[in-house]
């Protein structure tokens, strides 16, 4: 065991504590230490010392991440559009009532107050959305009318989807009335409307007045002029006649007058029945039936879209069929509302379901006189794979259901009833005239049996003939038997195409397979390994030479040997009756300037040949060693020859300086791939035989076993005996460190006070232990050891020499048996993983 591993294992053995922290204590501890400015690594080490395992930290991290995701996506998604709309309508109703009750001079203040209320409501909604308490159910969706994207909210996905029911509840369609249009001539004036009277000609004047609750406006020198209930045309005539009393030129048409509408009032409309939020609403006087339905949150699950009623003064003045608007763009029933109008949405009369191969399978509301043809029109018609000759209708009949077959000729006469289920099937995946040709033809594929293509010869001609490599002696014709069982027939294409045999008639679903000569003859592949740019397998081609394959592989590398290239060839003897002891034929060739020479000239490869380009014995890459510390020159030095030793490289570095501590020199050597793998295998074996629970075992691949190890050297003896066994042979990657003179000794482990003290020549072990306060209560005195600076380790006995720079380590007696090295090694990776998870948990709470 190297010096570093001994120190890590020993020090970590003191860090193992028997505490157990709950998940909440871990979270509170991470918050506290992060607020105190601790780093991630420091928090990880502290958690490890308190008995927290990486598995516990991972569980806490996952727990709080799941909770945050649930908070941000769970509660907010269930807030409905109607709740938002109710809040907005409530605010609008309050503002409208205030406008109605205020005087004419306060109109501008009322508008500002309404805008402030709406902005305050919008701010509250945005704050709630940021807190994850409210979300728009249709945030980001497109108009369900334009795209026919009739998706329900998440909690309604398992319920039935009724066509058109979300048109008035989708944010994609607002149905806002336009207030920038010219005033309609049939607009009926009422209290709250602003009337603008313009007079020009012989007399000029401009008057703006609001109609009072009594229905009149006040004109100077004239008095009250009653306009309530008049449309714009009537009001214009009435005002003109009235103003003739004030302006003499009015009757002689020397003075003109025009009445227009300024600011408009709000009207009160009752929306009742099967809507999301029935009640009384204040709307713009330009609002239509659709505007009212939108403000009421749309139609609920049992409301009708086909028979919406509009009542005025107790009489029905319009019936609205929303399907006329959605399918044909007709809006005759979408009339403009007036003060006191009532919109009633009754329950639907008939609801049917269509499923299967139509473009919009869902529920549709139908009228009593509508037929299957009407339902198919609403559903967008058949899809391409629909079987349209016969449809299956399921209908309730008393306590049971009955099925009906509806022929295509009955579509326009067969009437539907409430609860019907219409199913459209799929056409059969079969062909009545399909044949197929595969393999060695120029145009393989499926073809139709027709009047000019009924035989195998005609099929090959239609596929533009056989390819050059087609095997004509035997083709296979697959066809269906009387009971649809698969049958195969051998066909001689040569005889059929030459006319020596009668052509074979094709049947539906026949498949002709024509093989190529290459398919029947295995060509194998060529393989090249070794010192080429791109080693691997390449397709075989006739007359391929070694040089050709090397070129395909990108050429030779600089270390490739051209004096010898080996080819291994398979033993193939199809007529043999006895096994052979020979496994392969081996050929060796030489190449020069990319061409074969001597026995390599014109050497052709065969299928499955394996070519190996070896490394030239005269090729060596540079190898370097590093010297640090007390030499005249430091840094990397290239090895000049094999078996170059310590004394050789020190001589090339200019020798050792006077202040060097030669006995403390040590050498670090790089692990080879084989040595690193041996370490992992040894660790796996130790863990497999440690008796640990397999679920608690650590992943060996995640343990950092290091890339270098210490080699104990005695540089003093090596310099005194060059070329001896003390004079170590160097390897590529070695690092020699020669320290300065040392004057301290370090005492650590189970002593009363681990310390670093001054080295005193001649003093023994006991002296230095006393310098650290003596042994601890659980110290293993007979197992103490000394790690010298040169990398060697010795058991600490009474007369064991103490040298400058060494470290005396006193192990601790374990509480429960011996040291479990697999647990010690796992601690080396636990610190890092706990630090990472601690940082993640803290960032979650931030």
Detail the topology: elements first, then pairings.
Blueprint: H1 3-15, H2 23-35, H3 40-49, H4 54-73, H5 81-101, H6 107-130, E1 194-201, E2 205-210, E3 216-219, E4 223-226, H7 232-243, E5 255-261, E6 267-273, E7 279-283, H8 289-295, E8 308-312, E9 315-320, H9 322-328, E10 342-345, E11 350-356, E12 362-366, H10 372-378, E13 390-397, E14 400-407, E15 421-424, E16 434-439, E17 445-448, H11 456-462, E18 475-480, E19 486-491, H12 493-498, E20 511-514, H13 517-520, E21 525-530, E22 536-539, H14 546-552, E23 560-570, E24 584-592, E25 595-597, E26 610-615, E27 624-629, E28 635-638, H15 646-652, E29 666-670, H16 673-688, E30 708-711, H17 715-720, E31 735-738, E32 744-749, E33 755-758, H18 765-771, E34 785-787, E35 793-795, E36 807-810, H19 821-845
Parallel strand pairs: 6-10, 11-15, 16-20, 21-26, 27-31, 32-36
Antiparallel strand pairs: 1-2, 1-5, 3-4, 6-7, 8-9, 8-10, 11-12, 13-14, 13-15, 16-17, 18-19, 18-20, 21-22, 23-24, 23-26, 24-25, 27-28, 29-30, 29-31, 32-33, 34-35, 34-36
Helix pairs in contact: 1-19, 2-19, 3-19, 4-19, 5-6
Describe the structure.
By secondary structure, the chain is of the alpha+beta class. Helix content is 26%, strand content 23%. It contains 19 helices and 36 strands. The strands form eight sheets. Strands 22-21-26-23-24-25 form a six-stranded mixed beta sheet, covered by helices on one side. A hairpin with a 2-residue loop joins strand 13 and strand 14. The two termini are 44 Å apart.
